[in-house]
UniProtKB/TrEMBL annotation, chains A, B, C:
It holds the Pfam family MC_hydratase. This is MaoC family dehydratase. SUPFAM superfamilies: Thioesterase/thiol ester dehydrase-isomerase. Signal peptide: none annotated. InterPro entries: HotDog_dom_sf (IPR029069), MC_hydratase (IPR048274), MCH/BMMD (IPR052342), Thiol_ester_hydratase_Rv0216 (IPR016790).
Length: 350, 350, 350
């Protein structure tokens, strides 16, 4: 029996199966610092213990996407080592703040499985949960991936396709943010004069700035998440592959776009839910990422007058500024240069 | 009204104006570690809690230039987003040690303003102050920048040009260093047998080593400082610009040169003041930085027998070793390859 | 007298000489995080305070090789600045766990010296010891380096060549790991179902994955270790040198190979001893590192039933997958692409 991890194939998954992932990791302020250095994020709540504490947090929580990437990374060796494609996300909920000193672990449950008509691949639906050492759930989300079959001749299982929400109900979100002492929210320190009521459904914001990505940067980030997907790291094999180069982890694009979105959404301090996300095109080192946002909806949170929720579409492009809000063309296809179409809920003070 | 920050133009500044900057940031030992990894700095006081504590510090303070860069970075979105050039520094004073756990914020006051004769730009003089959460001032400095006018037709303001010191009086410096328990200063651990009395005015030191800079390195550093100046990050636009490539943050050059200067100035443990600095030429990724120093003056500090102050000119070059101390040619212009001419006071044990 | 460090030449060393090195450094969780981000290491004991504490550690100790690199780095300015080659290692012992907050220093003793027949160089044998602020020795090892003579005419000293063990006795190792509470060793969290008894002498394991190295990565790593060897950092001079490019620190290769070896040796949580190591060929940025291991021996530790020791040969290659376990060809020479032949003892739970 081989000592190395061959990854799981389509046949290896069964609905109801629970997989406890390696490696637990204690996150520290150093993860926050390195995250800042990799993306240039400037949200005050995640940057300053004092700012966060004055609002009601214990101290500065880790960036929500950093938590997402660390949890996601743990699932890779068990879920997507033999994946052909990461097809989508749904129902991502941030359930509790994560602070320096917390140890993050992850567990996944297989919630659906359906063979493709070609008989060589199938789609596996997985709900993954990140939790801390005392069992507190900090994040859960569903993703579905196309996975190779080990043996094309193995029989197709009965298809099980879970019902997934197109969007989360904002009322069930927000538990990862304490009730804020709004008197201490300082727009100057936060970097934006615009609060919840300044934003309206349909509004589009070009985030203006662009960020060029280097191989060393995305590799350092992806290893920080202990994400072992081979395509991000091995030029020797990728050089002979479809693109001739290493593929950048899709989560890296989300984090760059989120950091760029500070310019226009500076007070949007906390992601509460991920409705869905599509990696439209691959990103490579040397490309420059731009981003724009559209307000898809606004919502009040039950029992909370301190914050409101914005539902946003965050679109990232490569080598294409976003003054014209590039998205889909008349034929329904994404325009050239669009990298990411990400749909999420986030909180802003009122 | 646009949600994104358009930056301030010449007309937007007025003398006496006070600007509180985003984003406060809690610095930690992780900033110190990343700084070490980015520059290879080896000064013992900033590297070892035990060494620093034995001398009278609470623990290892953050590197002075790291503090400078973090404070400087905060001023960029408000002061220099529309800057044509960073013209100079003066009167920089390090006022208190910064320790891991401190939260740094910055505020600026506009102290002067003068339109240029071309009518399209002007010079703005700014005093910026960095402080911790309890209000302790840790750094202040003046810089002046050339900023675009929004409208060339707007009338020129009455010129106000502040009087700035050509050099700081060393007697007013030094408060950021405790009285040192010199018995615990161990030359072997510090890495140099040379103390204050070994250096004399006029002495020149070639720091010998060279350091090649990579895009990923300066981008990671500049984002660590949350400095958003566009020219450092966007190859898509810079590729079509004057140089065809990203410009490296001038402060990155200062930090490389300071780290190289350990070889020759190993006991120069603390920068107390910045008299002035000029970025003579741009640095690009792939270039190799060298440095040399000249002792411009030596001084005793009133009431202190533990340390003396050296006033140094720190010169950095690119792709040019410094055995011949490259500086200005006969016509008064800087020689080819000179990047930086930096004038500062720093302390060395006696 | 020059203020800069000229490094020591062959004549400057004498047997019995003790050299206390600069710069003491307080290591923190930030070093662990950056190490993870640079190599992608996934060993649970070094990643999770909770996992480590449940087994008997105070908290997650720093990676053994990180400790090695930091101690090694301190010796460079005094031992190998004028080195022609790093010839070998022997007798490396990890003596106590190193935790965040510890301050690491290093001292070396010259234990042998022999001039080469060419009269221009000689070999110096050095035992280096790393210790924490309270004097606890955490690591010692011997290395021998070929060093230039300052003056070819200086007389050859009486040769002193120390007797060095070809391999360490595993019984004298293991003190840096506490007695483990094995009930808490969770294979799922650790990432491997294979324990000590699953491995047998002669077994070979291809670690499958490859990791491409970037200039920014090895420079950041090598500066993190405050290793100043010029060949790693200066493209301006190395571009004109033998290889035309910067040489990657050999320790970087060891750490990449060790991180890759997680895939196949996931429960091998702690390196106890380094029997020897040979850097067979240079590594350059852009190359992809692969690795394989061979179990050279297995051993019980006296008085311990919790863990056993594996003696392993860890071989790294560049741009060459290791399915065929590349090593030496019939003529006894290393095959093309082999980078590293590293012989070490490490512990695995029973």
């Amino acid at each position: 029996m081989s000592k190395t991890n061959p990854g799981n194939f389509f046949e290896d998954f069964h609905v109801g199966q629970v997989i406890r992932h390696a490696t637990p990791r204690t996150v520290t302020s150093s993860d926050a610092t390195l995250y800042t250095a990799l993306y240039g994020s400037r949200f005050a709540v995640q940057s300053s213990d004092d700012f966060a504490h004055s609002l009601g947090y214990d101290r500065a929580p880790l960036d929500d996407l950093l938590v997402f990437h660390i949890v996601f990374g743990k699932t890779v060796p068990d879920i997507s080592l033999n994946a052909v494609a990461n097809l989508g996300y749904a129902g991502g909920r941030f359930l509790a703040p994560v602070y320096p000193g917390d140890t993050l672990s992850a567990v996944s449950e297989i919630i659906g499985k359906k063979e493709n008509s070609n008989g060589t691949t199938g789609v596996v639906y997985v709900r993954s949960t990140g939790y801390t050492a005392d069992g507190t759930e900090v994040l859960d989300y569903v993703r579905w991936v196309m996975v190779n079959k080990r043996d094309a001749a193995s029989p197709a299982p009965d298809p099980v396709v879970p019902e997934l929400p197109a969007a989360l109900d904002p009322l069930v979100l927000g538990n990862a943010a304490p009730l804020l002492d709004l008197e201490n929210w300082d727009n100057d320190l936060a970097g934006s004069p615009f609060r919840f009521d300044h934003y309206a459904k349909g509004e589009k914001i070009d985030h203006v700035d662009g960020m060029t990505v280097e191989e060393a940067e995305h590799q350092i980030a992806t290893r920080l998440y202990q994400n072992t997907a081979k395509v991000h790291f091995n030029q020797h094999t990728e050089g002979k592959g479809r693109f001739g180069k290493r593929l950048i982890y899709g989560g890296h694009v989300i984090s760059i776009a989120r950091a760029l979105s500070f310019n226009g959404l500076g007070n949007l301090f906390h992601i509460t839910g991920i409705n869905g996300g599509k990696h439209v095109a691959p990103l490579f080192a040397g490309d420059t990422v731009y981003a724009w946002s559209e307000v898809l909806a606004t919502a009040d949170l039950e029992g909370r007058t301190d914050v409101g929720a914005l539902r946003l579409r965050l679109v990232a492009t490569k080598n294409r500024p976003c003054a014209d809000f590039p998205m889909k063309s008349a034929d329904g296809k994404y325009e050239d240069g669009v990298l990411l179409d990400f749909d999420y809920w986030a909180l802003m003070p009122k």
